[in-house]
Amino acid sequence: EPTVTVLGDAPAEKFDITVGTVANGTVVVDKASAEAGETVTVTATPNEGYMLNTILVDGQAISGNTFTVTGAHEVTATFDLIPPSVYTVSVGAVQNGKVAVSADSAEEGTTITVTATPNAHYALDKIYVNGVAINGNTFTLTENAVVTATFTAIQYNITVGAVENGTVTVDKATAVAGATVTVTTAAASGFKLDKIYVNGDAI
C-alpha cells in the first residue's frame, strides 16, 4: 500500500527577548520570547530621584514603550537624575528697617541667609518666611519664599542723676526716640534753678 504523509505547518520560530544591564531603574518586558511580528511592551520604572530618559532595543532608542519583534532583541533603558526644583526668594514690605537675602532664586535645599538691618533707634524683632517666624537668620529653601521682618522701637531708660540743692523728676521711666519727656525741678530753699542737663548737655 502507498504511504500517505500529512505535513502540517511548521511551528513559528520564537525569538528571545532579554533585558540588558540597567542602572538607576528597572526594565520589564511582557514576553520572554515572541514570534516575528508580535508586539512587546516594555515597562521602565525609575528609581527614586530619577526619571526615564530613553528605552532602547538593541541599542536603538524607540518611541513609546512598545516595539515589533523582528528577531532576538535585548531591551535596556537609560534614566536621568531629576533636576532639583528652583524657587524664587523675594523680600516683602518692611517698615523701620531693611531686609536683604543671599539669593533671589536657588535650588531646593539651598540655605538662604537673611540680613535684617534696623533703622536708627529700632531693633530687629523677628524674621518671617512666608508669614512664619524663623529662628536665627537662615532657612532652607523648600518653596517660593517671601521674606519679611519686623522691627521694634528701642525703649531708652530715662534716669535722674545726682542733683544738689533741689530735686528733679521725670514723667517717664522709659521712652522711644522722638518722645517728649517732661522734667520737673524743685529748688531747695535759698536756691533757684540754673540749668537742666540731658546727658551732660544743657537744654
Give a quick rundown of the structure.
The protein has 203 residues and is mostly beta strands.
Report what the structure shows.
- The chain is mostly beta strands.
- It has strands at 14-19, 25-29, 33-35, 39-46, 50-57, 60-61, 66-68, 73-81, 86-91, 97-101, 105-107, 111-118, 122-129, 132-133, 138-140, 145-153, 155-157, 166-170, 174-176, 183-187, 197-198, 201-202.
- The mean pLDDT is 95.
Provide the structure class: mainly beta
Order of helices and strands: EEEEEEEEEEEEEEEEEEEEEE
- Regions with pLDDT < 50 over 5+ consecutive residues? none
Number of strands: 22
Keywords:
mainly beta, single chain, 203 residues
Describe the secondary-structure layout.
Blueprint: E1 14-19, E2 25-29, E3 33-35, E4 39-46, E5 50-57, E6 60-61, E7 66-68, E8 73-81, E9 86-91, E10 97-101, E11 105-107, E12 111-118, E13 122-129, E14 132-133, E15 138-140, E16 145-153, E17 155-157, E18 166-170, E19 174-176, E20 183-187, E21 197-198, E22 201-202
Parallel strand pairs: 1-8, 9-16
Antiparallel strand pairs: 1-3, 2-4, 4-7, 5-6, 5-8, 9-11, 10-12, 12-15, 13-14, 13-16, 17-19, 18-20, 21-22
